[in-house]
Amino acid sequence: MILSILFLILCATVVGGQTPPVYKFDPKYDTCGSGSFSDFRMQYLEGTYIMCLRWSDSPLTFFGARNYCQIRGTRLGVFDTMDKMKILQTRNNLTLIGLDDLKTEGKFIWHNGAELNNAPNSGFFNEDEPSNSAGIEDCVVLHGSLLNDVTCTTLYDFVCELV
Ligand SMILES: [Ca+2]
Ligand SMILES: [Ca+2]
Predict the structure, then answer these.
(1) Ligand 1 centroid vs 113 CA: distance in angstroms?
(2) Is the pLDDT of residue 25 over 80?
(3) Alpha helices (H) in 16-158, listed in sequence order
(4) What is the pLDDT of residues 26-81, one digit of tens each?
(5) Most distant pair of Cα atoms in the chain: their distance
(6) Ligand at shortest distance from the CA of 143
(7) Cα torsion at 132, 134, 139, 145 (round to 10°)?
(8) pLDDT of residue 11
(9) Which residues form the C-type lectin domain (predicted)?
């Protein structure tokens, strides 16, 4: 009887055109996935699940970190809203994220493909950043509470994001 009712509710939901939410994580363990993703942790802001991250154990260069995340089927963390920035700000200073201007100087691209518009006044970067100091700063770290462009060959802690 109960199963019949549940089936009817499910049918009504599908007919109603509402797609049930798809959960990629198991709330019971606070992880976002099983197996190789079991060390990724759900990140909340004010009780709302925002994103799924794994903070590095040891530092790498940008290229090493990007590769490390990609090999696992993830990416460097994309903090493209101020809410997501708040999650980044809870962590250690000098953390590499998924944002760079490697392709075109001054044009910062998030690793979800979106462009960070008007970077100097975006609200994401520190004052007087991005500076592209010595013409070689194309990667981005948290520095204080906002972002700074830095060289891509220096070792930094980093964060991978499961999407
Ligand atoms: Ca640059
Ligand atoms: Ca800089």
Answers:
(1) 17
(2) no
(3) 62-71, 82-88
(4) 555 688 877 888 889 889 888 888 999 999 999 999 999 999 999 999 999 999 99
(5) 72
(6) 2
(7) -60
(8) 42
(9) 52-161
Higher pLDDT: 13 or 71? It is 71
Q: How many whole angstroms from 131 Cα to the centroid of ligand 2?
A: 4
Cβ neighbours, 10 Å, residue 84: 19
- Give the residue carrying structure tokens 């010595």: 134
- The Cα–Cα gap between 154 and 128 comes to 21
Burial class (CB in 10 A: 0-12, 13-18, 19+), 12: exposed
Q: How far is CA 72 from the centre of its chain?
A: 14
Which parts of 21-141 fold into alpha helices (H)? 62-71, 82-88
- Residues whose CB is under 5 A from ligand 1 (ion)? 101, 132, 137-138
On whether the CB atoms of residues 67 and 76 are closer than 8 A, the answer is: no
The amino acid present at 10, given as its one-letter code, is L
Find, among 28, 32, 7, 148, the residue nearest to 88 by Cα. 148
pLDDT tens, residue by residue, 97-141 = 999 999 999 999 999 999 998 777 789 999 999 999 999 999 999
Containing 137, the helix (H) or strand (E) segment is none
Mean pLDDT of the chain: 85
What would the mean pLDDT of 18-25 be, rounded to a whole number? Answer: 52
